[in-house]
Amino acid sequence: MNPFSTPVENEVVITHEDVDRAHDRSRVATARARRGFSSKARLLWLLVGPGVLVMLGENDGPSMLSYAATGARFGIGFFIPFVALTFCMAIVVQEMTVRLGAATHRGHAELIFDRFGPFWGWFSMIDLGIGNFLTLITEFIAIRAGLGFFGIPPWAAVLLALVVLYAALMSHRYWTWERLTLAAAVFNLVFIPVALMTHPHWHAVGHAFITWHPLPGFNKDTLLIVLADIGATVTPWMLFFQQSATVDKGMTTKDIRFGRIDTVLGAALATAAAIATILATAPLFAHQMTADNFQAAEFAQALEPIIGRIGASLFALGMVEAGIVAAITISTSSAYAFGEVAHKPHSLNLPMGEGKSFYAVLTLCAVAAAAIVLIPGLPLVYVVLVVNVVAVLAMPPALVFLFMLVNDKEIMGDLVSPLWANLLSTAVVFVLTGAGVLFGISIIAPNIFAALGGK
Amino acid sequence: MKNDETLNLASNRTLVLSSLEHDQLANAKKHPIARRNLKGPELLVLWALRVYVLFMMTVVAYQVWIAAH
Q1: Nearest C-alpha in B relative to A393
Q2: Going from the N-terminus, what domains does chain A have, and what CATH number goes with each?
Q3: What integer best gives the mean pLDDT of chain A?
Q4: How confident is the prediction for chain B on average, in pLDDT?
Q5: What are A90-101's pLDDT values in tens digits?
């Protein structure tokens, strides 16, 4: 049975979205038709995007803060290889969204709605919407804090971020939006020179990668950091965003190999930035300083005596970049999901007139989150950790639907997951679900962890 | 901005039909995909998900309540 209905030739109606996407696909077809290394490189350049954006987008304000807290609290040790492992888990999960998007040309929320019914469709959309909105708040907190390091007042910082977000949208063209956001996202690598300025103990880094030692003490605080680091790399919005972006970019089954390369490349860049952040704040651990009193910009202030004003400024700018890129991608993910479930036009190729609801959702989410950030007295660190933990808890349902969809032969045909991919993704689902349940136990019965030798 | 007349130029139509697969067209996506016929184990998974969601909401609500007090 073919669940897709195909329009006959004389029913075809051409839209702006189709014409723009066709231009992009035409360039891909031209590059693919040529031979040689330069043509392959051009093809990669044309097809790279959703994977790099999703991975660097997930290295967002809360994530970088979480990595900074990890470095300051635990130094160089277990968490260095652990973070690399979480990005490997992210690759396993995100690769499935590439296949789903390329094979079905439908977004994740749309597939859940159509294949499993309105209840799960709306549940997924609302679940994603709440999680995204909470996360957006923390992105603007990171932006405000990062720019606050340079003396920029909160209202100006938030306004600047909204202007950047809106400027990326103004082209009404997926390709332009993607390239502008990619250019901003690459700035995430600024944490690497910051790490180098701290003169990391490379022998200890190598030892940590090989032995996973020294291990942190097993207690509730450690568990929360572990969950936060998992939440920093694998979250529901990533599934929805990459699949929708793959569809909006117009990728087909012929592009899946490049979609995988795109995802692995993004994960490699994001891993480098994440580990660099841990290394950058590790000196705070060596100086017997704790993360308890630090927030996004305060990490930069704390590092200033160690790496100087330039290094601290780069660290603060990195936090700003992380917040801005994530604000762009996460608000876009919400707008995609709303359009898919409400069956409204949803594409970054839409002119404003045809995509009113899409752009309205995107803008409203960003503006509302930005406004909330201006409320004084928000408990920053707590909000950030809760957001990551909520994301971890919300992940299993999203993963189960992903798993069922990617093994749905009616929509995937021969692109259903092979056995090895199913084994890997099953293991990831178990790890993430286990992490969520452990967190639940730590909340309901914290004494259990105390009995095991923790606090 | 392109208007409807320029949109339906033969050159655009040719480009779109030669570059995009039929189910990539915006108009084709207005047709929903058929509902999946769920069987026993899949229904069980969905019920397990409902239980998990309730558990998750309880834990988060409890945590928020603790934080508020």
Answers
A1: B56
A2: 47-451 (1.10.4160.10)
A3: 86
A4: 80
A5: 999 999 999 999
Flag whether pLDDT at A294 surpasses 70: no
Searching chain B, which residue's CA lies closest to the CA of residue A442? B59
Separation in Å, CA of B18 to nearest CA in chain A: 8
CB atoms within 10 A of CB A427: 12
Render pLDDT for B2-59 as a digit per residue (tens, 0 to 9): 555 566 677 888 899 999 998 899 888 888 889 998 888 888 988 888 888 787 778 7
In percent, how much of chain A has pLDDT > 70? Answer: 86
Contacts of A455 (CB under 8 A, 6+ apart): A219, A220, A221, A449
Q: What stretches of A287-379 show up as alpha helix (H) in DSSP?
A: 296-342, 356-373
A317-to-A146, A181, A188, A324, A390 alpha-carbon distances in Å: 6, 16, 9, 10, 27
Q: Across the interface, do A6 and B23 touch by the CB < 8 Å criterion?
A: yes
* DSSP track, B22-56: GGGSTTGGGSPPPPP---HHHHHHHHHHHHHHHHH
Query: Cα separation of A448 and A350, whole Å?
Result: 54
Q: Give me the long-range contacts of A147-154 (CB less than 8 A, separation at least 24).
A: A147/A316, A147/A320, A148/A297, A149/A297, A149/A300, A149/A301, A149/A312, A149/A313, A149/A316, A150/A313, A150/A316, A154/A373, A154/A374
Q: Do B20 and A25 touch (CB under 8 A)?
A: yes
CA distance A63 to A61: 5
Q: At A54, which helix (H) or strand (E)? A: helix A50-58
Residues in B closer than 8 angstroms to A379, CB to CB, are 67
Q: B52 and A396: CB-CB below 8 Å?
A: yes
pLDDT at A290 over 90: no
Nearest CB partner across the interface for B52, out of A13, A397, A408 = A397
b/e per residue A183-220 (b: at least 16 CB within 10 A) = ebbebbbbbbbbbebbebbeebbebbeeeeeeebeebb
pTM listed for this prediction? 0.90
Please give the radius of gyration of chain B, using alpha carbons only, rounded to the nearest integer: 24
- Please write the tens of the pLDDT for every residue from A393-441: 677 788 889 999 999 999 999 999 989 889 988 888 788 777 766 766 6
